[in-house]
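ingest -> validate -> predict -> emit
validate: passed (alphabet ok, no gaps, 52 aa)
predict: started
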Amino acid sequence: MSRPGVEGGELPDDRAERTEETEATMLKGGLLWLLGIPIPIILLLWFLGVFH
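emit:
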């Protein structure tokens, strides 16, 4: 079965861009966590839009 907008298993451009942005945001948060920043502080920064 094929889905509209998806050829050869590739994601549509807008979905692929959102996936890359999400991965970048997660990596930023993960890096801060590895550097010793507590998760509540990371979440606060995320809610304030620091990662966007």
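Residues 13-47 form one domain.
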